[in-house]
Design goal:
single chain, alpha/beta, Serine Threonine Protein Phosphatase 5, Tetratricopeptide repeat, Rossmann fold, 3 domains, five-stranded parallel sheet, 17 strands, 12% strand, disordered N terminus
Length: 715
Amino acid sequence: MTDKRRSSLALVSLLAIALFIGSCSSRAPVKVVKTGPKPVVTERPIIATITPDERDIGFLYKKAEKLYSQGKFQDAAATYIKFIKLATPGSRIADNAYFKIGMSWFELARYRDALYYFSMVVDKFPDSEVHTEALINSGVCHYHLNNYKEAEDIFKIALDRISSPGHKAYIFFYRAKMADSVGDFDRAVDLYIRGDMFADNEKLVNTTRSKVGRILHNFLGEKDLVKITERYKKQWPAQIAYKELINIYKRSGDNSLLEDTETRYLEEFPPPKKVSFFGASDKEDYKPLTPKIGAVLPLSGGGSKAGREILQGIQLAFNTFRELIDEKSIQPIIRDSMSDPDSAENALETLGKNRDTIAVIGPAFSDAFQRSAKVADKYLLPIFSPSATADGLASLSDRLFRNAMTNSLEVKKIVDLAVGKMGHKKFAIIFPNDKYGKDVSALFIREVTKAGGSVVAAEAYETNQTDFGAQIRGIGGFPDDELRRKILNVARRNPGRSSKTINNILQGLNAGSLSTPVIDSYGSWPLTSKNFRPGLLFEYDAIFIPGMYDKVGLILPELAFYNVKGIKKFASKKAHNPKLLSLADKYTEGVIFVDGFYKKSDLTHVKSFVRNYRLAFREEPTLLSAQSYDAARMVLSGLAHGVASRREMTEYLSNLKFFEGVSGMTSMGPDGDSRKSVTYLVVNDGKIVELPRPESASVISADDTAQTDEYRRYE
């Protein structure tokens, strides 16, 4: 394990000078040692006599680090112990010394001794940067000591605290090994597969798949194998299960089932085309020795701000796969699209011609991404945009993918909440009269109708507009003076009638209208122009206001002025900006909107991303940086899972399921668009906060049964 403080400094300094890959070293994954011999049970190590030369604690620590790096673990442990004896209370590196002692004994298979020192870190240094690794390793020690219950309890605690996918992979791996060792093979297979999903190195992937193959071959029967083919359709566990089923039917002579199983197997896992040296399949099946990942981003021109945010997300993702990048000699290639679709297309052409390019991240904007379809098909190149939002683009080619909150995804999630969970049935819309506004409002009407609701009014405004009175009147709004006149006219024509009767008369007169004036409260009778409070009853119970925060911030106060009150208000992700609160102040209270990323999330992996992003770039992460971070990690995860060609990368991304990203739990749909969870936000007490996640807002369809408790937390 490297010293965490040095890692943090490296993260800041080296990322500042690297164009693409942050050369900083992030915290190394938890060191995992193969099962060794039974641990030696010994007394606590005795502190050696301290010589005068060794009173320099700095010298002692450096000596211990050198011994550890040389693999002289027993000598290293003894020297770390001397350092701890001499170090002043509260030493800033005492936690790391205790941790390294534990790692030294761990390497020597002295798991009981290792457990003692890992537990010291956990108990004495709760704020240490090696606290989580110590916690995980104490669970691994319990595993080696056959204390499975203690190990399971520790692993469950650690899962709630860690952010590193690599660490999670090892936890699932050891939980699977425990289930495997006690003969709970169904659970073992499930845990091995979950570990594979998080694995960030090829060695662990291969070991995990080998163990799953062993269980399927030796311990699972026909019915269990069939379930796996159905549950993990087109994924590697199904491929193993199909092969076992084929062998079973061959041995039993059941030719009907054999033929049916072989047909389904070939449909889900077609054999690769024969590679020719000059044909198209050569480009797709070619396996470069030094794979390159391209990125086409607007680093100059009008979209340069977005391009910079996307690039920084990619840089941070590459930093989390340093070991893989070094092992496979993965090289990034950056191309500036100059915020121009033609330049983006030319850059994609150049990357496509380079056979070593295994995938491209980008382009950033929808017009350029649309053009990338023909390049993807021409060069059989998987192209993955982290930010293009226009609907339907990813379906233009089987090799186009997207990790973005599209307009349709956003609208579906709003309707899921508004209709499905909150029970609203009738809506009004006030939307900008531009492409985005028209598209989103049309999608909203379609989704509400599909959900059994209706949109009873829709008003458009021009993008340069600052007064929205006409639009609000169009959805039934009236200012106080008009309401008072309407109510007083009816009251004077019906002297002696009660307020309830007057309201009934008003409702009859306004039947079929979008709103009805009513007496909300009054002080005395008869009514005068000043002794009652007017109100409105509406034919709808919620309003959808897509648009930028600056327009929404002007519309909200005007809604109140025109007495559109007591109506739930929903906005789009474009309203998620702190400036909305200063523009509309108290009128923002209760407004709900969705977003694909929430930097104040309590999720551990999101908090870790936000912290590392701030440390590396000295600014706040955005939705674009979060989406690009996840997109780059998905591509790198493919390489960690053995992807070696364009064809394999296309297949890997096509079948991606339950990827735990900072921009949401993600599965790839058949159209190349990601199926993502979202964050629901609400303005509460003048602050934008996360709305408790509703039960019905799930990113996973009912058909995707592979999701388990650990994943449901992120739906």
